[in-house]
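Progress report, Aim 2. The chain analyzed during this reporting quarter is listed below.
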Amino acid sequence: MKTVFSYQDRTDLYKMKKKGIAWEGIQMVDLKGQYLKIKDEVDRAVLDCMASTQFINGPQVKAFQTAFEEYLGVKHVIPCANGTDALQIAFMALGLQPGDEVIVPAFTYVATAEVIALLRLKPVMVDVDPHTFNITAELIEPAITHKTKAIVPVHLFGQSADMEPIMALAAKHGLYVVEDNAQAIGADYTLRNGQVKKTGTIGHIGSTSFFPSKNLGCFGDGGALMTNDDGLAARLRMIANHGQTKKYYHDEVGVNSRLDSLQAAILNIKLKHLDEYAAARQKVAAFYDRNLGGIPTLQMPARQNNSSHVFHQYTLRVKSDDRAKLQQWLKNKGIPSMIYYPVPLYKQKAFSDYAPAGFELPVTEQLCREVMSLPVHTEMDLELMGYIADGVSSFFAAKNNN
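Predicted C-alpha cells for the chain:
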C-alpha cells in the first residue's frame, strides 16, 4: 500500500527544525511544542500566581473549578491532587465497605483497580468490547452479585463507554456508577433522546486526571471529580480536605488531596484550547485511517455512533504475529510506539488474589497481544503524519515482497 506521502528512510528527523525549534525526536506526545504555542499565556499565569504567593487553594483553583463546571455542564467539580486520588475519594464518598464488589474492565490502567483493592474492596474484572475496548452493559450484568455495589466504566483511549444501558443496568440493581474519564475528557456522549452530555458527567461521580500527557494536562500532577449530586459533592470536598468542613473539625477520616494553584493557573489556560486540541488529534486519526485502513492485518480504532472520540491514544490492532517486528521497524526509523496494555489486570501479581488460577477473558487476552498505539498529539503536521504512516505501510510492503 502507498500512502499520500513517500519518504526515504531517515533518522535525521531528530535534527529537523520546525519553526526554528530543533526537534529532539518524534514524540508520542509533544508537550514542548504544545507549550511553546501558548507560552506567553502560561508564563503570565504562572508568574501572576507566584506573585500572589497563594499556592494552595488560591483564586486560580476556584477560577478553574468554575470554568471546568461550565465547560462540562456539571453542577460540581472538586479539584484534587491526581487522577488516582480522584478515584479513591469517589469510593470513600460512596461509603463502600470492605468486601464490597466493584466491577471494572480487565483491559485498563492499573489505577482503576488499584484504589479498589487499596480500600479493601474487591475488584471484579470483566471483558471488554473488541472494537471500542470499553465495557458494556451486556458484559457487566453476568458479573453482578449480591455483593456488587458499583460499576466503573473506563472511557478508554478517548471515547465513551455506552453509558445509557450501563446507567439503566445500575438503576435496575441499585448500583453506583463511577466514570474513569482520565482518557476522554471533552468527549461527547449522545443519549437516545438526543441530549448530549460530556463524559464524566453521566454517572453518579466522574473522575479525571490532569497528568501532563493527558488531553487536558497540567505541568505536574492534578485531578478532579465531577458530580451533579449536591450531597455527594459535599462529601467529596470534605474527604479530599482531611474529612473536615470547618478547619480543625474533622467529621471523618479523609485525605489531603489538593490541586496546586500553579497547576490550576496552567489548566485555566489550556482548558480554553481543549476543543482545539481534540480537533487536532481527530485530524491525525483521520489521516491514519485514510492511509493505513487498507492494510488487511491492521484494525483501525472503531468509533461509536453515540460518542465522539478525542483520541487520547490512536490504538491499532495488529492482527498477526508481527507487532514486535513492526515496533522494531518503526524504532529504526525514529518512530515511537507504545503498548497500552501488555498484561491483563488479573495477570498482574498485585491482583493475584482477585482472580482464580487459570482465569482468562478472551478479548482482553487478544487485545494485550495485538494493540499498538501510534503517536497522536496536537503539534503534528502533514509531513510528520505522512512519515509515520509511510513507516507503518512500508513494513507491510516489505513483508509482502519477501
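Residues 1-23 have pLDDT under 50 and may be disordered. The radius of gyration is 22 Å. These observations will guide the mutagenesis work planned for the next reporting period.
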